[in-house]
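Progress report, Aim 2. The chain analyzed during this reporting quarter is listed below.
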Amino acid sequence: MDVSGEDIDYMSFFFVDIVGLSDPLMSTRTQVNKIKTLNKLISECPTFAKSGRDQMIVLPTGDGMAIGFRKALEKPMLLAKDLHLQLNEYNRDKSENEILGVRIGCNDGHIFLVNDISGNVNFWGPGIILARRVMDLGEAGHILMPSSMAESLLELSDTYREMIHPIHDYEIKHGQKMLLYSVYGENFGNSARPSKGIITETSGNRKKIPRLSEEIMEGLSYKKIELHCVLIKPDSRLIGYRRTCHIRNNTNEPIFVLNEALTIIGKSISDINLRLYDEDSNELKLSGVVSDADEKIFIVKLNQPILPGEGNRLYTVAYEAEEAEKYISETFATGCQDLAVIFEYPADIMIEPRLFLIRNREQYAIDKDVMVRSSGKYIVRWKKLHAVRKGDGVRLEW
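Predicted structure tokens for the chain:
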């Protein structure tokens, strides 16, 4: 097909379909009513109603529709939120058979504009194709998008950081792999992780990512690791973790990514409020998330590469998690010259924190260095542990 520049456009896409519409037990009348209802609800959504018809293209797809917006990166996500709020009201008093559930995929990119047999403007291209494939991963209530669109939206507004959450690496058609983001909040979206297409360490040849990460880690030396833990909620044992690593590149190549492994298999990234920072306190971006039976591995893209021989670089991982018992265990995937451990807890509770070094299944008590009271809390710091080995761990009890 010979396509001129006038036939190419850049748009952001909203792709929706009705979940379970092909159920053979559902009557044709019910199917038709659901399609009509979806059309009506979308037409009443503020984002759709306020968009000029010359600024969007609507393409019915039988069990849903695709909408392309010109010069409006935010509109697919905002329309998805509008639609969920409308659905909440519509489904409130409906029977199980009448409830209307949808899944939504969003993306942006280039498309070709073509006229169909009736002369109506249609579109096709990688932007809309990916929106459809992302949507296909979803289940009822999901609003999903690839990382490219998510990262662009996150740069626009801090409000979107409360709505757009990275979840995991997924595989779509033709073996394409991507970090997927989910949009959810109060009364919209689905915070559960989609089960279809998720990539684990043992999926196909995906093992190469953990191996790559291990090779990267082998090229780094860790001068110091600071582990800072805060007991936020004593009743639920909610702990705030902050681990800062002082690193040096010992290879002959620049390092562009790092990996971070956490034993939080049952938790999503948004559940633990994961944040990653460089030495200038600038946030680092995730480029991948894979899991195995024991841990999640986060592939982190550096804002500036670590050059060969470069030292005094830092990166920090921070997150929150509830502990089942009154202790914290941490095993180190690499050795370091010095390890510092700090524990903060409210001054109005009576506890006696203790730290142990775990090495070769033996446990060694570590003496406190300092304990101070400040602003209604106690801050305990242990003496630096020197020459920590790969596989060593610490256990903090209270």
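The chain has a mean pLDDT of 87. The longest strand covers residues 102-115. These observations will guide the mutagenesis work planned for the next reporting period.
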